[in-house]
Amino acid sequence: MKIKFLLFGFTALALTSCKTPLNVAKIHTEKNISISKDLPDDQTFNTIIAPYKHELEGKMNKKISYTSVDLNKSGDNSNLGNLLADYTFDGADEWAKKNGIPGGVDCALINVGGIRSTIGAGDILTKSIYEVMPFENEVLIVKMKGSDLKGLFDYYLTTQKNNPVSHLYIETDNGMTIKELVNGKEVEPNKDYYIATSDYLAMGGDNMTFFGKGKMISTGIKLRDLFLEKFQANPQIVAPTDIRLNFKNKKNKTNE
């Protein structure tokens, strides 16, 4: 019993000795400043940021490529969408062959909603790519059995959405899939396929839940960095014109 009282006493002493006095801060009444276009510039602030602003504008306005035609994302086979899908395939394929996937990737798909702008004919600047891809999405590779690719083809059959693809051909007509090709060949149910896409889609974004049956492989490659690299490597852009999504007698318009 004495021990209990001693413990209680030591605890109480510790609590009271460690207690910090409460200080009430002095309160000052300040005037609200309205933020509007009429607010005068802070010249000191402008002077400080001027060199950084100049440097950033120089980088953003740097020419990295050229296109003789408008690059847009409208329609089932948009030239910008297919171009970026091809760049996604190429980047993932290069990475795969250097990282234990000798055959590289088999195909690629991206979402048209992730393409936030278009590129007009003429010089292509660094800032154009930032406007097209303002997000920090990463390239992922999803390993899937051929039998599970049925979910991918069913997705396009159901939605008839113009999400760009590369090394894929999908043809539908009257509620049925007529052709389902990967690299020009029919799918082998027992074969492993490697699909390049974005982390957003791989995690089920845009209702692409079929990726859930696969194994995700991270590349560490940012889509925007990949696109910048590919545009810089191609001074004259040749926009793809081939048909990859062929929705015959299309009724529901879900293009973006």
From TrEMBL:
This is 5'-nucleotidase. One of its GO terms (molecular function) is hydrolase activity. It comes from the Bacteria. One of its GO terms (biological process) is nucleotide catabolic process. Residues 72-211 form the 5'-Nucleotidase C-terminal domain. It comes from Kaistella jeonii. PANTHER family: 5'-NUCLEOTIDASE, 5'-NUCLEOTIDASE-RELATED. It holds the Pfam family 5_nucleotid_C. GO terms for cellular component: outer membrane-bounded periplasmic space. SUPFAM superfamilies: 5'-nucleotidase (syn. UDP-sugar hydrolase), C-terminal domain. InterPro entries: 5'-Nucleotdase_C (IPR008334), 5'-Nucleotdase_C_sf (IPR036907), 5_nucleotidase/apyrase (IPR006179).
